Amino acid sequence: MSTVNPSVAKRSAARLAAVQVLYQMEMTGADTERALQDAKDRRAAEPKGRMADPDNSLLNQVVRGVSAQLEDIDGHVGRALSGDWTVERLEAVLRAIVRAGAWELSARPQTPARVCISEWVDVAHAFYSGPEPGLVNGVLDHLAQTLRGGEMGKGA
């Protein structure tokens, strides 16, 4: 039986929490710092051991990064969507996932692209049991090839 590295679990928890914060921001109009503080307060009120504590640095980076670069991120995501799909047409949680994944691919080269894609697909599986994780995979793979072509084995 294998065990999960605690730092990996913390980063995974941070990605999941980031989606929740981004969703809250979109649904309530809360600003970035308020939404991050609300998330911290909710975690403090939860029983310990229920979930891995998130890597707060990564959580803050993702939420602040997506917030600060939303227009650019939406442009990248929009170009990666197929057909007549638009970022606005995506359901809010799905939109938060692809935005966060797109930000990480563009802003955190220390995370290998394939790891980044896999992590965000795992986050999608936490919310969806249908085709949505496949959409996340397709969009992020397209973005990885565009943003990190050499790493993905294809030219940009």
Q: What pattern of helices and strands is seen along the backbone?
A: HHHHHHHH
CATH superfamily: NusB-like
Count of DSSP-assigned helices = 8
| Share of β-strand residues | under 5%
Helix content: over 70%
> If you consult CATH, what is the topology?
N-utilizing Substance Protein B Homolog, Chain A
Shape field: globular
Radius of gyration: 15 Å
**Uncertain segments:** none
Largest sheet: none
Q: Give the number of DSSP strands.
A: 0
**Total domain count:** 1
Structural class: mainly alpha
End-to-end CA span: 40 Å
CATH architecture: Orthogonal Bundle
Task: Give the overall pLDDT as a whole number.
Answer: 91
CATH class: Mainly Alpha
Organism: Paramagnetospirillum magneticum (strain ATCC 700264 / AMB-1) (Magnetospirillum magneticum)
Protein name: Transcription antitermination protein NusB
GO molecular function: RNA binding
Function: Involved in transcription antitermination. Required for transcription of ribosomal RNA (rRNA) genes. Binds specifically to the boxA antiterminator sequence of the ribosomal RNA (rrn) operons.
Written account of the structure:
The mean pLDDT is 91. The chain is built from 8 helices and no strands. The longest helix has 23 residues, at 6-28. It has one domain: NusB-like (N-utilizing Substance Protein B Homolog, Chain A), CATH 1.10.940.10. It has helices at residues 6-28, 32-45, 56-68, 70-80, 92-107, 113-127, 132-147, 149-152. Keywords: RNA-binding, Transcription, Transcription antitermination, Transcription regulation. This is Transcription antitermination protein NusB. Involved in transcription antitermination. Required for transcription of ribosomal RNA (rRNA) genes. Binds specifically to the boxA antiterminator sequence of the ribosomal RNA (rrn) operons.
